[in-house]
Amino acid sequence: MLTGEFYSTIDEKGRILIPARLRSALAGEALYVTRGLETCLWLMLPADFEQLKDTIISTTSSMFDRKLRILQRGMIAPAQLCEFDKVGRLNIPMSLRESVGLSTKDESVILGTGNYLELWSKEEYEKYLSESMDEFLDAAQSLSQMRERE
To answer: Is 94 helix (H, G, I), strand (E, B) or coil?
Structure first.
């Protein structure tokens, strides 16, 4: 399981050091990098990305479904398989960095969210946390109510 909040900087060549604890959980596998929801990138193991892809492209009729085409274009099309270098860095493609406002030499946040990682600019992540606090508290209350019914 991938968990934790880590701060790192994307270097001038577009590489980011993935913390050793996360790398060991990933067993050195390459990661698919693609646009996530909100303003972040998702970094996923190939098997997890394949599941996502198969969910979005479930049948040949998906090419005729407007919402599925949007997901295909937003998540599947821009995805790129990125390998770790010897030091444990991933080269994040410029087009993906630019799509979520990740700049080189600025601090970034890597979040372990269970079975994938999220990569945010620190500024965007802090903005997201601030703006979503009410929703977070509502979700926590809903979870509490669900637990009480069990």
So the answer is: helix
